[in-house]
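User: Could you go from structure to sequence for me? I need the amino acid at each position, not a summary. Structure tokens:
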């Protein structure tokens, strides 16, 4: 509830700030270049084009603030980060407005361009930042007074759990914590999380059994909550993990990575737009492939399999069928290049990765992304985890139609090759960025066009 309330405050404040900035900017604009065209300031302010801007531009600012990632985290904000995020967004928005709107009206002097831009930028930044600073400072006061706390459940009942509980309940600079309980791993976590309104999970087992810890971590993803570990468990992780220091006690956030907040929002939007465009524009191709699959062999056009996706949640993945209908009558079995189960047209589709095209529907639904780690079946994940337990890290992001592993390695024929391919996906996870996504997409398109899918 606190997060939703803060989000509403930030959204409202940004909307009001944008309205005020545009209103005062238009007052300046009138005296700079509109006095000769309007009999009064009031006449200019209620001019239809000015009023349209007064209504539309604040919503444009809200969209820009969303893509800056500012609304992703509403509590525990850094004042310094808030300053620079607001500054960068104000500058970006002012440039867009200047080139899209202001540049169309020729002023009597080039100097007026600079004056207009400077006023627009200053008003946009100052109003937005002052309102945000007030809201953030008020929240910080609530946190310092422990009126607002994050309710964290510690999973573990030994000495380590007691130590963390004591440290976490001391006053914290960034965020105060309340720990309702330390529970055993055999507890009914689902009931406790719901009844206690738990917001974070802290794993603190005294046991040195890595398999026990990893199996526990894997089971916790279903609750869609931040999961943190003491730094002593870092031996189980690869590089690039975020470390959060809470009351002097370092915790590893195993549900976060280094992908920027603005990058996450842009990536999600691009996923939706691109997948929708592909499904519409390539619908004739889908129809052709469906007819060819049906003519090629008996069986359904599409196959669906349960895969494990974001936060360890299962979902149904869709593909064009490339194998005989009875291909897995004896259970799950990985394919190879000369697999006799693959149909003639199936070979063609796999070569050009055309069998993956239905997964754009998975992307549109939100199960997958255009670029992300390869989603696997639980049958194979259970085997991979025994040899490469850090595989669970890949479930911190949505799986993708294509991945760094598919580009650099391709299809895997056995568990050893799946683990080898996974190394590329771990590398992707630790270095996620929009530029890396674009690079992988370019390589993927090259693979489709050259027929080097297998």
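Assistant: Here is the amino acid at each position, in order:
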């Amino acid at each position: 509830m606190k997060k939703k309330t803060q989000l509403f405050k930030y959204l409202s404040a940004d909307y009001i700030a944008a309205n005020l900035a545009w209103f005062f900017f238009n007052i300046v604009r009138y005296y700079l270049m509109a006095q000769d065209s309007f009999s009064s300031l009031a006449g200019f302010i209620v001019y239809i084009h000015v009023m349209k801007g007064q209504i539309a531009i604040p919503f444009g600012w809200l969209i820009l603030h969303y893509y800056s990632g500012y609304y992703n985290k509403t509590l525990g904000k850094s004042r310094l980060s808030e300053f620079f995020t607001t500054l960068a967004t104000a500058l970006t928005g002012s440039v867009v407005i200047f080139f899209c709107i202001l540049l169309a009206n020729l002023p009597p002097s080039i100097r007026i361009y600079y004056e207009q831009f400077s006023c627009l930028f200053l008003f946009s930044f100052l109003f937005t930042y002052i309102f945000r600073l007030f809201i953030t400072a008020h929240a910080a006061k609530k946190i310092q007074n422990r009126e607002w706390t994050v309710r964290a459940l510690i999973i573990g009942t030994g000495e380590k759990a007691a130590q963390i509980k004591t440290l976490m309940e001391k006053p914290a600079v960034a965020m105060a914590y309340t720990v309702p309980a330390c529970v055993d791993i055999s507890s009914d976590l689902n009931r406790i999380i719901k009844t206690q309104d738990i917001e974070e999970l802290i794993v603190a087992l005294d046991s040195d059994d890595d398999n026990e810890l990893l199996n526990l971590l894997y089971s916790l993803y279903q609750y869609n909550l931040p999961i943190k570990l003491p730094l002593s468990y870092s031996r189980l992780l690869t590089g690039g993990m975020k470390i959060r220091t809470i009351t002097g006690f370092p915790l590893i956030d195993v549900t976060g990575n280094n992908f920027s907040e603005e990058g996450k929002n842009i990536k999600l939007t691009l996923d939706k737009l691109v997948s929708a465009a592909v499904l519409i524009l390539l619908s004739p191709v889908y129809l052709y492939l469906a007819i060819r699959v049906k003519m090629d062999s008996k069986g359904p056009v599409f196959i669906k399999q349960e895969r494990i996706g974001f936060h360890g949640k299962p979902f149904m993945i869709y593909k064009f069928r490339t194998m005989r209908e009875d291909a897995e009558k004896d259970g799950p079995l990985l394919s190879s290049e000369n697999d006799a189960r693959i149909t003639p047209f199936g070979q063609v589709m796999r070569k050009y990765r055309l069998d993956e095209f239905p997964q754009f529907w998975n992307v549109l639904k939100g199960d997958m992304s255009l670029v992300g780690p390869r989603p696997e079946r639980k049958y194979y994940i259970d085997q991979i985890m025994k040899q490469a337990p850090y595989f669970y890290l890949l479930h911190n992001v949505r799986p993708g139609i294509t991945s760094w592993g598919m580009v650099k390695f391709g299809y895997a024929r056995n568990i050893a090759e799946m683990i080898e391919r996974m190394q590329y996906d771990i590398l992707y996870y630790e270095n996620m960025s929009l530029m890396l996504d674009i690079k992988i997409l370019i390589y993927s398109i090259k693979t489709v066009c050259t027929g080097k899918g297998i």
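One structural detail worth keeping in mind: Residues 2-144 form one domain.
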